């Protein structure tokens, strides 16, 4: 069986993170950080969670879908990142409190909407952004954009905070809550760039 | 001899007359400027000053928000070029089925604000696309039909898309360049209703 007939999962499994070979359980790290993000989301209690698919945030999105089924909030799959900014902006105008979950390799799609709508119209919203690229990334196509997302967001004058290996996992949930409050307090969109992979 | 097409100004006047106190999300450029010519500045109008392609998503957000409870409809006015730019939002509208959303597309087959360059709309069956997405859709080309569908839509659960064929006429109108924060605060106060304002 060659790579063209293998299932995608099998191809991914054939390229484990380099840290796994050195005894670091990257999968456990993703699990632990996902649970911390989930605790943060439950604490802030959004009215709507708008999301695009993300392999690294898979557990978080599954949780959101499950909780939406229980009536905790509305879960809403998007077609594109900028659509999410538009819908979240409309929700905010109408008194709702939306949360967005996206990947950073789609952040380019969101920039125009963020900088011409959410930011100048002073519409608070939190984006939980999974970071790809860099160490432990398996997809060679994703580094060019994703490793520069911090710089791109900063150059766009958008406020962002970081969650990565430098932040202890026990601080992740509180950072979600604090970033949410920061968006409300400053009446601006806030991006929380989360690296679950390394 | 064929009757001349509706103008944008005539269509906007008809919409504003039929929905004088409902939320209206109005797309950028010529649409905003001609609406201001028609009605002057209104608190129930959200003027989207840029963010091409986003108004249907913004209107969708407002239609899903708590504020929509107070209104028969949330009306969004978009051009054919803008609709095509955020085309995938039709799928999201079809998925979510917001009963309050009335999306009106003024279709002149051109990008008016930038010099009447052509769009792809003449090659498409926009009503057919909307219908395929699960949206009730109508085509109108006369004032009588426009008024009838506007009136009829008020009491019919949406989502509804109304494509209005308009001619190429653009009215001279001054630029509208307020601080967007003013627009947000005004529209939010209006959406919050008289109880919140008291």
| Tally of DSSP helical segments of chain A | 9
Let me know the largest β-sheet of chain A: 6 strands, parallel
Strand count, sense and closure of the main sheet of chain B? Answer: 6 strands, parallel
Distance between the termini of chain A: 31 Å
Helical residues, percent of chain A = 40-55%
Q: Uncertain spans of chain A, ≥5 residues at pLDDT below 50?
A: none
- Share in β-strands of chain A: 15-25%
Q: How big a fraction of the residues of chain B is strand?
A: 15-25%
Biggest sheet strand line-up of chain A: 2-1-3-4-6-5
The low-pLDDT segments of chain B are none
Counting helices, strands and paired strands, the structural category of chain B is: alpha/beta
Quick check: average pLDDT of chain A? Answer: 92
Q: What assembly state would you assign to the polypeptide chains in this entry?
A: heterodimer
Beginning-to-end CA distance, first to last residue of chain B = 56 Å
The total beta strand count of chain B reads 8
Taking all Cα atoms into account, the compactness measure Rg of chain B is 16 Å
Give the strand line-up of the largest sheet of chain B.
2-1-3-4-8-7
Order of SSEs of chain B:
HEHEHEHHEEEHEHEH
Along the chain, the helix and strand elements of chain A come as HHHEHEHEHEHHEHE
What this model shows, in words?
With 198 residues, chain A is α/β, with parallel strands linked by helices. Chain A has nine helices and six strands, in the order αααβαβαβαβααβαβ. Chain A has helices at 8-13, 18-21, 26-44, 58-69, 81-93, 107-118, 143-146, 149-155, 172-186; strands spanning 48-51, 74-77, 98-103, 125-130, 159-163, 189-194. Chain A has a six-stranded parallel sheet with strand order 2-1-3-4-6-5, with helices on both faces. The two termini of chain A are 31 Å apart. By secondary structure, chain B is of the alpha/beta class. Chain B contains eight helices and eight strands, in the order αβαβαβααβββαβαβα. In chain B, the strands form two sheets. In chain B, strands 2-1-3-4-8-7 form a six-stranded parallel sheet, sandwiched between helices. In chain B, helix 1 (8-18) packs across helix 2 (30-39) and helix 1 runs parallel beside helix 7 (143-153). Classes of the chains: A alpha/beta (198), B alpha/beta (198). The interface between A and B is medium-sized, with 32 and 37 residues.
């Amino acid at each position: 069986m060659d790579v063209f007939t293998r299932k995608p999962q099998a191809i991914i499994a054939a390229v484990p993170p380099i840290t796994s070979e050195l005894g670091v359980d990257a999968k456990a790290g993703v699990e632990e950080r996902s649970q911390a993000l989930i605790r943060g989301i439950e604490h802030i209690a959004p009215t709507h969670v708008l999301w695009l698919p993300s392999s690294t945030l898979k557990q978080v999105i599954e949780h959101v879908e499950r909780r939406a089924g229980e009536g905790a909030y509305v879960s809403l799959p998007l077609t594109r990142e900028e659509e999410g900014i538009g819908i979240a902006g409309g929700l905010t105008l109408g008194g709702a409190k939306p949360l967005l979950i996206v990947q950073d390799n789609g952040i380019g799609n969101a920039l125009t909407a963020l900088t011409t709508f959410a930011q100048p119209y002073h519409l608070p919203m939190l984006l939980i952004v999974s970071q790809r690229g860099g160490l432990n990334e398996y997809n060679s196509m994703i580094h060019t954009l994703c490793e520069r997302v911090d710089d791109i967001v900063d150059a766009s004058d958008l406020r962002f905070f970081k969650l990565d290996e430098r932040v202890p996992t026990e601080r992740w949930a509180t950072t979600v809550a604090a970033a949410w409050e920061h968006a409300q307090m400053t009446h601006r969109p806030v991006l929380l760039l989360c690296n679950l992979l390394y | 001899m064929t009757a001349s097409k509706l103008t944008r100004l005539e269509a906007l006047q008809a919409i504003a007359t039929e929905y004088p106190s409902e939320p209206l999300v109005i797309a950028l450029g010529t649409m905003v400027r001609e609406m201001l010519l028609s009605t002057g500045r209104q608190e129930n109008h959200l003027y989207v000053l840029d963010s091409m392609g986003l108004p249907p998503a913004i209107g969708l957000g407002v239609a899903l928000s708590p504020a929509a409870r107070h209104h028969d409809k949330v009306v969004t006015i978009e051009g054919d070029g803008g609709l095509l730019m955020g085309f995938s939002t039709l799928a999201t509208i079809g998925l979510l089925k917001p009963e309050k959303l009335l999306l009106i597309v003024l279709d002149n087959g051109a990008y008016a604000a930038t010099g009447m360059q052509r769009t792809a709309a003449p090659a498409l069956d926009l009503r057919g696309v909307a219908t395929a997405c699960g949206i009730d859709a109508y085509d109108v080309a006369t004032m009588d039909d426009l008024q009838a569908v506007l009136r009829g839509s008020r009491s019919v659960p949406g989502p509804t898309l109304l494509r209005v064929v308009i001619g190429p006429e653009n009215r001279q109108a001054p630029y509208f360049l307020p601080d967007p924060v003013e627009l947000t605060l005004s529209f939010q106060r209006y959406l919050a209703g008289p109880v919140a304002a008291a």
